[in-house]
Amino acid sequence: MADPIGYRRAVPGTQPDYLYPPYRSTEKRAPTKPLIRIPHTLSEVTGPMFGQDKVSPTDNDLTGQHAAAPIGERIIVSGRVLDEDGRAVPHTLVELWQCNATGRYRHEIDQHDAPLDPNFSGAGRAMTDAAGRYRFLTIKPGAYPWGNHANGWRPAHIHFSLFGPSFMTRLVTQMYFPGDPLLPLDPIFNSVTEPVARERMVSVFDIALTEQDFALGYRFDIVLRGRGATPMVG
Ligand SMILES: [Fe+2]
Description:
Layout: H1 25-29, H2 42-45, E1 74-82, E2 93-97, E3 123-127, E4 133-139, E5 144-146, E6 152-154, E7 157-162, E8 171-176, H3 187-190, H4 195-199, E9 204-205, E10 216-219, E11 222-223
Parallel strand pairs: 1-10, 1-11
Antiparallel strand pairs: 1-4, 2-3, 2-7, 5-6, 7-8, 9-10
The structure holds fe (ii) ion.
Fe (ii) ion is lined by residues 154, 157, 159.
């Protein structure tokens, strides 16, 4: 069998460098030796499929996991997952996790002095449909302080994880909200130095996704690899 055609390599600046000193933890984890370029063979352009049998249709509703509704502003987050040529990635697993409306995660390491919400766990998952579409119902996450630098605050964000069709389409990223005043100050957001690529992490307010008397809608399209790829941000 002939070698498969590999994925396009990222354009410099459109993905964060492994070392970006303003984001301090990159100093601990960045490679210290030159990288070795690995060709994309069958092992890289294929991969396992996740979520085929285990995702229930209600796993995408983060507001319905407990006895009562969580506190916060309900939002709909929806979009399409696309490949490097703009084609839909159907039937692929999309996972997300986030803090609650006060800016606190339900995790023992998070000791931020903000209240936990007994009705919000902060994690959900969905499969894309035949057109690559996914949809979540959740609440808008709050900003929270972090120890990266003096008076550092993370802009409101939702973490996303996708696998796509192969090992090389694995993506972990963060979705932000338009107009957030903390974005220009955020080292993680700014670790993507190319402004156009950086904006790919910012969702778009979409009145068409908004449901009257119920929830605002934000559109977040996710591109796995290629020139328009959504940045990989942990
Ligand atoms: Fe976070």
